[in-house]
Each structure stands twice: as C-alpha cells, then as structure tokens.
C-alpha cells in the first residue's frame, strides 16, 4: 500500500483502471482511431494511447519528448530533440509537435519557458507572435491592415465588447493592398512621390 507504506493483501487495480484518462481529457483526441502507442503531444508531454484514450506523462527537467524507434515510439529523453531546446539566446521557437505552443529562450542552453496561443491561433516564428491558423496576425487595434506575409491579402479589425471581429479579404488579380489608401492597387502603376528628404526602399522592389 503506497499510502500506508505497508504490505497489503488487497490486489492493486489494473493499469487501465488507475491511469487511463476519460474521454473528455483535452488530449484524448490524439488517440482517437489510433492503435495502442506512445506519441508526443508537445515538447514536454508524452501520451500513451490505450484503447483510444490518453495516458499523459509530463517530462522532467532536461528531458523532452522525442520519437525513438528503438524504444517503441515516443519517450521522455535527455537533451533531445534539438527542436525543443534553447540553442540561441533571446529566441522564440514554435513547438515542433503542436503549432499552438511555443517557448522562449533567455540564453543558449537555458530551460525553455513554454506558452500557448489562444484557441484557433498558431505561433509564427517569423513575426514572433500568435497568428490565425490561416496566417493572419491577431487584432490589437481597429483598422484595416495588409497581411505582411502576403500583401495580396488583408484583414479588418472591429472592436467588440469582448475581443475583436476579424474579417479576412483578398485582392483580385495581381493587386496588392495599400494600407495608406486602404485599397487594392496594381503595384506596376504606383508612382512614388517624395514627401521628405532621405533614402527609401524601392516600393516596386522590396
């Protein structure tokens, strides 16, 4: 008996009775229609799928979830994989197993600090922010803005009482969205007019 630290004649419950989570566990969807197997839910979470349900284990410090074919699937393993570790200072990295999760690195070799984007969002390493699953940044102020990853796409942000209403739009043809005029324009007809003295990038060849 693990509680009283004494020997007991009462048999222990089965592994299924003691450890397997119910159908409503947040990670149970990973095991739907899956054979019994070990897999990684994220860099720090190992999941054992048993009869379609999730048995969850958190990896300890300096151990990360990684696939090891020689060990029968995913295991918590020391200092692997590199995608889950801090290799450079002042860096934000997406979790290789779950695009909704990301981690920050203070220094090379430091312990990753894990975070999770809101539902419906994923982490974009290029912009170091949570974006919509289709690649648009989340709203932080009202207005209409170009998608910095593709200027042929743009979105509007309308403040609501609780959060934002975000609409996604696309320019026709080869037109690009101009945030200054708030219209889709043909970039080949753009005429640049100097507004002030200085050096500026060519708007037709960024």
Textual characterization of the structure:
The protein has 206 residues and is mainly beta. The chain has three domains: 11-81, no CATH class; 86-134, no CATH class; 136-206, Antimicrobial Protein, Tachycitin, Chain A, CATH 2.170.140. Helix content is 2%, strand content 38%. It contains one helix and 15 strands. The chain has one helix at 15-19, and strands at 37-42, 45-50, 53-58, 63-68, 73-78, 91-94, 101-105, 113-116, 121-124, 129-132, 143-147, 150-159, 164-170, 176-178, 183-185. The strands form six sheets. It has a three-stranded antiparallel beta sheet with strand order 1-2-3, with no helix packed on it. A three-stranded antiparallel beta sheet has the order 6-7-8, with no helix packed on it. The protein starts with 14 loop residues before the first helix and ends in a 21-residue tail after the last strand. 17% of the residues are buried. Mean pLDDT is 82; it is low at 1-5 and 12-24. InterPro entries: Chitin-bd_dom, Chitin-bd_dom_sf.
């Amino acid at each position: 008996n693990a509680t009283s630290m004494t020997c007991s004649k009462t048999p222990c419950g089965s592994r299924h009775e003691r450890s397997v989570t119910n159908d409503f566990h947040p990670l149970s969807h990973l095991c739907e229609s899956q054979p019994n197997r070990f897999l990684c839910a994220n860099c720090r979470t190992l999941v054992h799928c048993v009869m379609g349900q999730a048995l969850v284990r958190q990896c300890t410090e300096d151990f990360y979830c990684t696939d090891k074919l020689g060990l029968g699937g995913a295991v918590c393993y020391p200092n692997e994989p590199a995608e889950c570790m801090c290799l450079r200072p002042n860096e934000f990295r997406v979790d290789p197993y779950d695009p909704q999760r990301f981690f920050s690195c203070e220094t090379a070799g430091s312990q990753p600090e894990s975070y999770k984007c809101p539902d419906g969002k994923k982490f974009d390493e290029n912009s170091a922010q949570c974006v919509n699953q289709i690649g648009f940044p989340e709203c932080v102020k009202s207005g209409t803005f170009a998608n910095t990853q593709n200027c042929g796409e743009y979105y509007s942000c309308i403040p609501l009482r609780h959060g934002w209403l975000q609409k996604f739009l696309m320019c026709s043809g080869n037109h690009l969205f101009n945030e200054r005029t708030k219209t889709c324009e043909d970039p080949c007809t753009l005429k640049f007019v100097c507004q002030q003295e200085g050096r500026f990038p060519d708007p037709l060849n960024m």
